[in-house]
Amino acid sequence: MSEPLNSGTDSHSYSTLKALKKKNLGASVSTLQRLVEQLKLEAGVERIKVSQAAAELQQYCMQNACNEALLVGVPARSNLFREPRSCALL
Known about the structure:
By secondary structure, the protein is an all-alpha fold. It has helices at residues 11-23, 29-43, 50-64, 69-72. Helix content is 52%, strand content 0%. The protein starts with 10 loop residues before the first helix and ends in an 18-residue tail after the last helix. This is Guanine nucleotide-binding protein subunit gamma.
């Protein structure tokens, strides 16, 4: 038989389908066709475990930390927000 409608789908699409069923709305065929197409697209999205995503994000951050201005600071010459110098002639 078929899989449950909520397996591998976005909660928004599932809640839309659930609302249509609950309210017993006479949804148009085109609306239901769009919903089915959206569910098919979402079911085809490759998913990874949160632990894997977190590990990859941590690795990316560590690899690019040397280029992050908030961590290493901005060189004085290229800092657009540095304090203006006073005039020495006064």
